[in-house]
């Protein structure tokens, strides 16, 4: 009678040993490799921390009007300021423009000022204003990750976007989306801004 061990048992044991050694090498090699760190944001993209919030001072922003003259937003100080960010290709922006124009025209001396901030081309804005004239001033900016809308707190980049600034130059309110009928008057009622977060 032969005393040789069965070949099948030897082969199964050898295979299990090889798999076990391979798994151990793989596991320890992975554990020694550091996990990848998140990629830093490209320098051209502003972090959300750079966007102004409620209670923050109005960022220093100077933009050209439709005639190319620079307009410093700080010159609107001393009275509340409603900044409405829009574009001629934005349907909801176009729909709320007559209500903003009526609100602006109804303001008494010392009342809320209205400023349109168009993320658009000069040609697009001029074409729109030829069809729908407004009396309040309009400034222009190029849409992008660091445009004035983003600096004013529009982290989502959607339009329309409105900001209410008090007479002392602090942001009181921020609104993403169009005004509903009759909403502007109540929304733009000036009140004191909370202290800026430290």
From TrEMBL:
InterPro entries, sorted: Redoxin, Thioredoxin-like_sf, Thioredoxin_CS, Thioredoxin_domain, Thioredoxin_ResA/DsbE_sf
Name of the protein in its database record: TlpA family protein disulfide reductase
Pfam family, one: Redoxin
Keyword Membrane: yes
Transmembrane annotation, as ranges: 9-28
Annotated Thioredoxin domain residues: 52-193
Subcellular location: Cell envelope
Phylogenetic lineage: Bacteria, Pseudomonadati, Pseudomonadota, Gammaproteobacteria, Lysobacterales
Keywords: Cytochrome c-type biogenesis, Membrane, Redox-active center, Transmembrane, Transmembrane helix
């Amino acid at each position: 009678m032969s005393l040789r061990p069965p070949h099948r048992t030897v082969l199964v044991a050898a295979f299990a040993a090889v798999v076990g050694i391979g798994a151990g090498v793989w596991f320890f090699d992975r554990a020694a490799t550091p996990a990848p760190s998140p990629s830093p944001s490209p320098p051209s993209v502003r972090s959300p921390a750079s966007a102004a919030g409620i209670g923050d001072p109005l960022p220093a922003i100077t933009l050209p009007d439709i005639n190319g003259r620079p307009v410093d937003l700080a010159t609107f100080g001393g009275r509340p300021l409603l900044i409405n960010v829009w574009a001629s290709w934005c349907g909801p922006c176009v729909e709320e423009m007559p209500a903003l124009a009526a609100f602006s025209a109804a303001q008494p001396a010392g009342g809320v000022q209205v400023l349109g901030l168009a993320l658009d081309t000069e040609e697009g804005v001029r074409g729109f204003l030829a069809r729908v004239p407004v009396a309040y001033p309009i400034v222009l900016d190029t849409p992008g990750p660091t445009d004035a809308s983003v600096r004013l707190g529009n982290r989502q980049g959607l339009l329309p976007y409105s900001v209410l600034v008090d007479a002392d130059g602090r942001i009181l309110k921020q609104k993403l989306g169009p005004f509903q009928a009759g909403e502007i008057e109540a929304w733009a009622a000036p009140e004191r801004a909370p202290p800026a977060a430290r």
